[in-house]
Amino acid sequence: MELDIVAIQEALQADSLDGWLLYDFHGSNPIASRLTGLDRQELMDTRRWFYLLPASGEPRTLAHTIELHHFNDLPGVKESYTDRQQLKASLQRLLKGRQRIAMEYSPKCAIPYVSRVDAGTIELIRELGLEVVSSGDLVQKFEATWNDLSLDTHRNASEILHRIKDRTFEEVANRIRKSTPISEYEMRNLMLSWFKEEGLITDAGPVVAVQENTASPHYQPTAKRHRTIESEQVVLIDLWGKLPIPGAVFADITWMGYTGRKVPDDVSHVFEIVCNARDVAISLVQSTIKEGQELRGWEVDRAVREIVEKAGYGSAFVHRTGHSLGVEVHGTGVNMDDYETHDDRLLLPGTGFTIEPGIYLASFGVRTEINMYVSKREGIVTGPTQTEVLALLL
Predict the structure, then answer these.
(1) Looking at the structure, do residues 134 and 230 belong to the same domain, yes or no?
(2) What percent of the chain has pLDDT over 90?
(3) What DSSP designation does 382 have?
């Protein structure tokens, strides 16, 4: 990622900030590494480093003497330190005359994806007389939004995931017809082989769950804990992945099936509710963006949650509506959340995220998950949308 210093400085000035102080230690803040373009796999960065993006003037690097050379390609002035006293004195010089700076900090850890700087470092900066504010909005704008390449890689990943999804349901149906058992865990491993075959990478998963296991939102079958996939069962598959190229972003989908000829009425009824809730979110995003109005993550979650609550299943919807998508499956941008947190960040142009309401009951659970992308005047669903639970034996 190439730093757009001019744009960052304009944003800092608009927010009445004196600077954005990036900090990292042993990879504790991947946001800082990505923004500066530092490849941790090629570095031996075992000491603390700081990179100040001021509201005006040249950027400034502060790093340990033995590691300063790692930062040669970064724009701006370089300064080194050796011992802890020199570090504090150098920080004082670095921040002299500044009052308000942004760091990867979130008050009360409201947004964990942004809260990357440890409390002790925040205390150190405050001890120097500065006010530290959250860089959440800056991260959203300069680290979490997609460019054209990001969108292309996401669409390609989405197409592959849907092929694997179709292949999975076909395999399950064939196994049922032939009375050839396969477990959740075996099916998961077979799907991973298709990921490799299709040139897609992932950080974990995918999820394959049947019957009561579908009622656990983050269920993951293992060699020791899994069920055999049999006839007349609800099946949930959740799969996410990206292309193995720099800057590629994830796609992440969830689909539902039933290993029989007719989906039970109670399953269809609950799935219809989550589909209605999902479609309310899609409509809200699309209409608001088209009208050029502001929309925040918590507002999307609230609209979805109201539908589920009115249907009488509010207590069974136990997670946020959606999460940011980026180079990590759970990106650093705005989440659709007024439940686990209150995410008041805007859906900016270039924002990518999931919409995934779910209802989880004692004997089964259902979820639908689609991906959306926001351009300057349009909210786009980037893949197919499931409208009913698939009867796999038709």
Answers:
(1) no
(2) 93
(3) -
CA distance 123 to 118: 9
The letter for the amino acid at 277 is: A
User: Is there a single domain that holds both residue 116 and residue 255?
Assistant: no
The whole-chain average pLDDT of the chain stands at 96
56 in the same domain as 172: no
Task: Flag whether pLDDT at 240 surpasses 70.
Answer: yes
What percentage of residues in the chain have a pLDDT greater than 70? 98
Burial of 241 (0-12, 13-18, 19+ CB in 10 A): buried
Are residue 93 and residue 158 in the same domain, yes or no? no
By C-alpha distance, which of 240, 270, 269, 245 is closest to 383?
240
> Which residues neighbour 249 within 8 Å (Cβ) at sequence distance 6 or greater?
146, 150, 153, 154, 157, 242, 325, 326, 327, 331, 352
pLDDT in tens, 304-329: 999 999 999 999 999 999 999 999 99
Domain that holds residue 93: 5-142
- What's the distance, Cα to Cα, between the start and end of the chain in Å? 48
Domain-terminating residue out of 79, 107, 142: 142
If one counts the domains in the chain, the total is 2
Q: What is the DSSP letter of 130?
A: P
Confidence of residue 41 (pLDDT cuts 50, 70, 90): low
Q: What is the pLDDT of residues 187-223, one digit of tens each?
A: 999 999 999 999 999 998 899 999 999 999 999 999 9
CATH code for the domain of 138 = 3.40.350.10
Inter-CA distances, 352 with 48, 96, 147, 159, 252, Å: 32, 38, 10, 16, 11
Domain boundary among the residues 107, 142, 177 is at 142
CA neighbor of 134 nearest in space, from 308, 280, 344, 294: 344
- Taking the C-alpha atoms of residue 339 and residue 344, their distance in angstroms, rounded to an integer, is 12
Per-residue pLDDT reduced to its tens digit, 259-272: 999 999 999 999 99
Give per-residue burial for 76-114: e unless 16+ CB within 10 Å, then b: beebbbeeeeebeebbeebbeebeebbbbbbeeebbebb
